[in-house]
Design brief:
By secondary structure, this protein is mostly helical. The chain is 76% helix and 0% strand. It is rod-shaped.
């Protein structure tokens, strides 16, 4: 999944993590 577009995937991953944190909250 993490290819040379890691920089491009970063914001997506962070967005998902934030969403999960909101759900856990």
């Amino acid at each position: 999944m993490f290819c040379a577009d890691s920089r491009r995937v970063e914001p997506i991953v962070w967005d998902q993590l934030t969403h999960l944190r909101n759900l856990l909250r």
